[in-house]
Amino acid sequence: xxxxxxxxxxxxxxxxxxxxxxxxxxxxxxxxxxxxxxxxxxxxxxxxxxxxxxxxxxxxxxxxxxxxxxxxxxxxxxxxxxxxxxxxxxxxxxxxxxxxxxxxxxxxxxxxxxxxxxxxxxxxxxxxxxxxxxxxxxxxxxxxxxxxxxxxxxxxxxxxxxxxxxxxxxxxxxxxxxxxxxxxxxxxxxxxxxxxxxxxxxxxxxxxxxxxxxxxxxxxxxxxxxxxxxxxxxxxxxxxxxxxxxxxxxxxxxxxxxxxxxxxxxxxxxxxxxxxxxxxxxxxxxxxxxxxxxxxxxxxxxxxxxxxxxxxxxxxxxxxxxxxxxxxxxxxxxxxxxxxxxxxxxxxxxxxxxxx
Length: 356
Ligand SMILES: Nc1nc2c(ncn2[C@@H]2O[C@H](COP(=O)(O)OP(=O)(O)O)[C@@H](O)[C@H]2O)c(=O)[nH]1
Ligand SMILES: [Mg+2]
Ligand SMILES: [Zn+2]
Fold this sequence. Notes:
Layout: H1 3-6, H2 15-20, E1 28-36, E2 39-44, E3 47-53, H3 55-60, E4 73-77, E5 85-90, E6 96-100, E7 108-113, E8 117-123, H4 130-142, E9 146-152, H5 159-171, E10 178-180, H6 189-195, E11 201-205, H7 212-220, E12 245-247, E13 253-255, H8 277-283, H9 300-306, H10 312-329, H11 332-355
Parallel strand pairs: 3-5, 8-9, 8-11, 9-10, 11-13
Antiparallel strand pairs: 1-2, 1-4, 2-3, 4-5, 6-7, 12-13
């Protein structure tokens, strides 16, 4: 690598990027640390500063995946002191963590770029779900990064529960590294620290409330990221955190992420669990395994509403969202059939009074 780029290696610059880098001699190479609407927070060896996308770049690149996201490398034109930098080029991404855009479009949405390893975080208390884990694994591999599984909140479960989850992961043929830790007892934190290598980029993904921000704060040694308040169940409520690339003392680069809903795949046991972990938790006490929490006898969720332990509003919201996501998951053909059947129903209902 040329001297110009030596200092950049601390920020994740590498030979792969070097080979493809095409910035002007006057340009500054910088890494995107955060994106706030049109404004970028970028880092280069001199520090962190603000930049804007050039109008020309915006004009020529209209797809969401063409816009810089956290982890991207950009070329920034020289700017007079005190003025905001202009990012006018996005460098090719070595890896991409992304999800498909909603709807029929062929596009996708970027979550993070140039990530070496994605830590898929699940809490071994109430959040553990092998199917969801597998979906994340597919997403990570699809983008070319290495996956690693991180189970949190080990303080809230018996050792046998954790052992069973590990066994379930291995029984499914998943061979990626699995780490387990507690942010409360700090057991496992040192082990995680040791796996995070300097100048490598790690992205934390997983449902909201599993402890991603808390882990990163632990690694930093101070409360930099906003975490959720603890509720009586120990699961915490919803907080959104913007994605941000942070340099740890040991030199590793980490990216926090808001909840799973951001990742799409809004399905029965995926996105909905984000804000409704209380309901998911109570559901194990329902009489029927597939209880819909609407009319079944022995429903622990409705019992909680009746007892005043859960608001009716929260329950209604869950039922409504679940119905929507069930509908969204139907294939196009199924949807059309449903619409047609509904149309027939409306017709026949109308035709009744006419024939009388
Ligand atoms: N008991 C326990 N609670 C934890 C642990 N890690 C995080 N929490 C709590 O879980 C809640 C959500 O944590 P947060 O880091 O905001 O989750 P995030 O949404 O994944 O970033 C907070 O109330 C944390 O204090 C843990 O290891 N054990
Ligand atoms: Mg968080
Ligand atoms: Zn129920």
